[in-house]
Amino acid sequence: MYNPFFKATFYQTRTIAQNIKDEPKYRLEINKYIERFIAKDWGILTHDDIKSNNEAIAYRDRILASYKTSKGRIYIIADATDKNYYETVTVLFADEY
Question: pTM above the 0.90 mark?
Answer without folding.
Answer: yes
